[in-house]
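Batch 3, record 17
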Amino acid sequence: MLVRLILSQRVNVYTLDISTIIDQFLKEFSQLSTKDLDTLTEFTYTAAILIELKTRALIYNDTSSTELNNIDFTDLLIAKMLELKTFQNASQYLAMLIENNQFAIPRSYYKDPEIESLNTRPISTIKTWQIIKALENLISTSNELADPDPHITELPPISTEEAMQNILKALETTSTQSFFEITKSCKSKIELIAYFLAMLELYKQEKIELKQLKSFGKIQLELLNDEFISRV
Amino acid sequence: MEKAEIKGAIEAILIASSDPVKPGLVAELLEQPLEVVIETFNELERDYLNANKGYYIAEVAGGYRFQVKPNYGAIIARFLTDFAPVKLSKAALETLAIVAYRQPISKAQISAIRGVNSDSTVKYLTDLGLIEPKGVADGPGAAILLGTTELFLQTAGLNSISDLPNIAEFIPDSKTIALIEERLSSFLDD
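Prediction for the assembled complex:
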């Protein structure tokens, strides 16, 4: 701002007093459409430089021995101002570049923000040997992963009756257990279905009580003892 | 791989990508010498410039990309409802120029040149993705050093930072220097 005020010749530093620069600044500031912190900081900085300039001018006028320091200070200040002015000119060039380029719109496609946030190159950190190992695993287990023939219903590895026995055996140690606990060793869906049917059968036979506190919640199985059954 | 096939593959890659495509990556992908790929890119660039099309291949941020010809840009901007051109304040442009020419540079050094605290401007430019931390200074305090990003090159339409004109070109003319010297010197001599 100091450079701008000097160059615009609205402020003559030669005959300047601090009150003049403040008046000029306030006048300019009131004309600004937006007032930001940067502008206010710049004002403080400008005022500080001017006070320093004034102070040095006053002190050095009375002390001729410090004239050399005075010249150094002027050179430094000029150099600093020229540096800032240089970058201000460069910024105008950048503004022109950006403006000229703003309509050079690149080809683009819609990027889903949710997908964008994900790692789109998940294998970028994976080593070649890891890929080879994964391929070996895939080949060795490919038979297991093959889709079953939809026309053939697979027989469960366990019958419903055996599953009923297993449930009762599990409930003998702990009278209450969840369906999840009992079936956590199941290796296939069909085995799980066998256990589910067994559970329903045991309930039908009034050998167990079932509790499910909320939809899709845990199913609790409770073994009903003989006393309870006779009472019922 | 035939020359025509390389050309077709590069075109296909350019169509599939919205970011500038680097010739090095394409050379690896097609298993072709880098020189051949760069030559093909340049050939394509010329083909599209000479063809009467609304778009062309531009060399931006170290890569190549399809973009609309600037004379159709305003129409496309109206067509794209979410199009928002980059608008930077005077302070942001000043900071960006300092970072572009003095990178890697710390926040304190930027503030020293500008004469104002530049923290908010630096944060704004970082949020926009135009500048980013590039390292840490060796000196005391281990200040974070900032530099421009690839997005900055894309925004300014530059291929590399070395495409910027020499900073000496922006030094004020002798008349301006003389004016500053005269006014400050006379003030201090007063």
